[in-house]
Design goal:
It is a single chain. By secondary structure, the chain is an alpha/beta fold. The protein folds into three domains: about 140 residues, Metallo-dependent phosphatases (Purple Acid Phosphatase, chain A, domain 2, 4-Layer Sandwich); about 60 residues, Double Stranded RNA Binding Domain (2-Layer Sandwich); about 35 residues. The protein is about 25% helix and about 25% strand. A six-stranded mixed sheet has the order 1-2-3-6-8-7, with no helix packed on it. It is flat, with a radius of gyration of 22 Å. About 15% of the residues are buried. Keywords: Exonuclease, Hydrolase, Nuclease. This is DNA repair exonuclease. One of its GO terms (molecular function) is exonuclease activity. It comes from Thermus scotoductus.
């Protein structure tokens, strides 16, 4: 908890599950050794009218670009853990602007710019102006504005490509085109040459993707392993969590001097 210019605020940065559980919970509490339980204990002991936190609440709508592993399962914190004594809770981690609680009042401000293609392409963006008077309700005023270049995904059939080229050329941001069906390498190359703001061309249902949907963009190790498990019918959260923990241990060891 810090105080600056008479304003008192509790600051809660993002911490990985392995480190948080180890620091907050005891070995004898094995049954309750979860990220959500550790967060509940921390939040229950924060006494401040204003809180700034970086974590994901259960039930939030992602805005594209978030690391999926840190949004679900053990990383999802129940909204009931938010401290009722806080007058306003400013949250980060989710890129879509949204209110997530009325008591206490809690919002994700969201990202000012689009960070990825996907679900959040049409999401409202901007800033939040928050009034916290000494008495009376907190008032939140969303300021709708967009910064940066927009990202857009277009799903087209091969026969529609030529007719939509003028539209693609005029688009002011960056494009991803998903073609439903076969697409020859020559046509793909022609699209990239004619559209310098085209970042990706993918196929859905064609031979290039093995018939299992769209071509996969470049994935992180955890996301790639998650997809590998799902393709083989092994959607076991425990396996993914253990893989993530081992990966973090390897990364920490690599950063340790003399390792």
């Amino acid at each position: 908890v810090v105080e600056v210019g008479g304003l008192r605020a509790a600051l809660l940065p993002f911490v990985s599950e392995r480190i948080l559980v180890k620091k907050v919970l005891q070995e004898a509490e094995e049954r309750h050794r979860t990220y959500a339980e550790a967060m509940r204990r921390i939040l229950a002991n924060l006494e401040s009218p204003l809180m700034l936190g970086h974590f994901a609440l259960e039930g939030v709508r992602p805005g594209a670009g978030e690391f999926v592993f840190h949004l679900t399962g053990s990383y999802a914190v129940p909204p009931s853990t938010l401290p009722l004594g806080a007058r306003y809770v400013a949250l980060g981690h989710i890129h879509r602007q949204q209110q997530v609680s009325e008591a206490p009042v809690a919002w994700y401000a969201g990202s000012l710019i689009q960070l990825d293609f996907g679900e959040g392409e049409e999401a409202e963006r901007g800033a939040l102006l928050v009034e916290v008077p000494e008495r009376g309700p907190v008032r939140v005023h969303p300021i709708r504005e967009r910064w940066g270049k927009p990202l857009k995904t277009l799903r087209l059939k091969p026969e529609e490509l030529d007719g939509r080229l003028p539209e693609l050329e005029r688009f002011p941001g960056y494009l991803r085109v998903v073609v439903e069906g076969r697409l020859s390498p020559a046509v793909k190359e022609r699209l990239f040459q004619g559209l310098p703001h085209l970042l990706a061309v993918e196929t859905a249902g064609g031979p290039e993707d093995g018939g299992n949907g769209t071509l996969a963009p470049e994935l992180g190790l955890v996301e790639a392993y998650d997809r590998y498990l799902k393709e083989r019918g092994r959607e076991e959260e425990g396996l993914l969590e253990r893989f993530n923990q081992v990966l973090k241990e390897v990364e920490l060891e690599a950063l340790t001097p003399g390792a």
